[in-house]
Amino acid sequence: MAHALDGSGPAILRNSELDAEAVRAARVDLAACFRMAARLGMHEGICNHFSYVVPGRDDLFLVNPYGWAFSEITASRLLVCDFKGNVVAGDGVPEATAFYIHARMHLNKPRAKAAFHTHMPNATALAMLEGPPLAWAGQSALKFYGRTLVDEDYNGLALDESEGDRIAASIGDADIVFMKNHGVMVVGASIAEAWDDLYYLERAAEAQRLAMGTGRKLKPVTPEIAARTYAQMREGDRESAKLHLESIKRILTREEPDFMH
Question: pLDDT tens, 72-102?
């Protein structure tokens, strides 16, 4: 299901070129997201990927190496890649679709500093259905009201730049893309915001799936209430996301401290 990407030769990444403290913090934050996603069943084997543009370097991004499960990711295990397919720091290579999806997303959508792609079960289940994935019937879903897009054009594995470009173009101004017959992509201005959206998207999808499973008709809220609730939620979203990630790091520091290594 996954393919390794053969880099065309690593460039040299000099520590003096980067803010070491900021890069270290980004590595720890991203590693925490991988570990918690694994705990919550939001991963799929070795096939899903999270990435983040290296602080101070818009031409480089952090991403997980091919062949390692989310539960095995540590801060130091993350790769630094450029947009040409080269691994400029770290051991290993990215999974091919990780490179083509994430590199083109970061290159074409500068606002997407973080890009999280998963086949998490509940959101992916909704992406397999005809019609709009979210019904706007649950409060958690309203966090995403007006922020989602559906990519209807599944074309198989993303193994070239053109498919990566197509996926990046499809996102428009949205933060969440339901990739029909595939999975989801969440982008954000920070690791914390991308994680917060990914987490609550899966919770919203789970609640909707459970409600649909009763066989009874869903009761969506009105567009007016949905828009108002969305605005209320977004007022504190950035701070809430930051606190959410900090809580995860505290839990992992107690229970899986090796994630920071």
Answer: 999 999 999 998 889 999 999 998 877 788 8
- Within the chain, strands assigned E span 49-53, 60-63, 79-82, 87-89, 114-118, 148-151, 176-179, 183-188
- The structure tokens listed for 60 are 């480089």
Q: Are the C-beta atoms of 176 and 185 separated by less than 8 Å? A: yes
Comparing 11-15, 216-220, 232-236, the range with the smallest average pLDDT is 11-15
87-89 β-sheet, strand order: 87-89, 79-82, 60-63, 49-53, 114-118, 183-188, 176-179, 148-151
Task: Say if CB 161 and CB 218 are below 8 A apart.
Answer: no
Determine the average pLDDT of the residues in 18-25: 91
Helical packing angle, 96-108 and 161-170, nearest 10°: 50
pLDDT of residue 125: 98
Token pair recorded at residue 202: 């899966």
Beta-bridge partner residues of 79: 63
- Percentage of the chain modeled with pLDDT above 70: 91
Closest by CA position to 56, among listed 19, 111, 99, 5:
19
Q: Hey, what amino acid is at 204?
A: A
Closest to 81 in 3D by CA, of 14, 24, 10, 32: 10
pTM beyond 0.85: yes
Q: Kindly report the CA angle at 94 between 89 and 95, in degrees rounded to 5?
A: 175
In the chain, how many H helices and how many E strands? 7, 8
SS3 sequence, 53-119? ECCCCCCEEEECCCCCCHHHCCHHHCEEEECCCCEEECCCCCEHHHHHHHHHHHHHCCCCCEEEEEC
